[in-house]
Amino acid sequence: MQLMLLGLPGAGKGTQAERITSDYGVPHISTGDMFRKAIAAGTDLGNEVKAYLDSGRLVPDELTIRVVRDRLEQPDAQEGFLLDGFPRTLPQAEALDETLAAMGRRLDCVLYIHVPQEVLLARLTGRRICKSCGATYHVVFQPPAVAGVCDKCHGELYQRSDDTEEAVATRLEQYAQTAPLVDYYRDRGLLRQVDGQRSIDDVYADIRGILSDIRA
Ligand code: ADP
Ligand code: AMP
């Protein structure tokens, strides 16, 4: 399956992606995760993108598109993938169409997790991520069994540098560039909207229903 998650920052894309990748075996391709790993590793890419991530601005299209093209060519992405956080602009969406067409592939479905903007600040400022395995938690909505420690691998949990009120405000402004993608994919008959303002389990139950329709 060739899938995409779309939604505001904090809508729950990464949280649902963990479940989808584990149940359906598709690799999770998150541009945000790829950039954060590059920053942590101190690579050239990391140095180039750090200021954008810290402030909440979008990384330039050309660079982002190059990173995703390379990733889609990797062997593990040949049977399917789950894109998360890409595309975020119309030029990125058009570049993805071209890349997939050149590979003789196409998207099966775009899962649009819809949440009202009011819930996002609390979700993002309470978010915690495992340093070792990348699992997502929330101090109130999805707390680990032991505060600060990952349930899955016992790694240390940290707060993303862009989950501050200031960077969140910038990220929400930047979403104006992503919002047109909802119509872009709706017009192509690919969009499936999910109500993201319910429990994590309920949102996932909807997603499973949609994915079983697609596979039928
Ligand atoms: P995104 O990847 O879309 O930016 P995340 O999946 O990282 O969003 O979720 C943002 C935060 O909100 C995380 O701390 C996560 O634990 C929490 N969260 C995700 N889904 C829900 C939900 N349905 N209800 C409450 N909190 C949620
Ligand atoms: P995310 O993990 O999806 O919340 O992304 C974190 C940050 O990475 C964003 O605020 C941007 O700075 C950068 N980023 C991630 N994906 C993209 C993208 N597709 N285009 C541009 N910047 C991106």
SSE order, as H and E? EHEHHHEHEHEEEHHEH
Rg on CA atoms, Å: 17 Å
Q: How many separate domains?
A: 1
CATH superfamily: P-loop containing nucleotide triphosphate hydrolases
Describe the main β-sheet briefly.
5 strands, parallel
The kinds of small molecule bound in this structure are: adenosine-5'-diphosphate, adenosine monophosphate
SS-derived structural category = alpha/beta
Q: Please list the strands of the largest sheet in the order they lie side by side.
A: 2-3-1-4-8
**Poorly predicted segments:** none
Please identify the oligomeric state: single chain
Q: Name the CATH architecture.
A: 3-Layer(aba) Sandwich
CATH topology term: Rossmann fold
Number of helices: 9
What is the helix content?
40-55%
How much of the sequence is in beta strands?
Answer: 5-15%
Principal-axes shape call: globular
Mean pLDDT: 96
User: In angstroms, what separates the terminal alpha carbons?
Assistant: 12 Å
Give the C-level CATH assignment: Alpha Beta
The total beta strand count reads 8
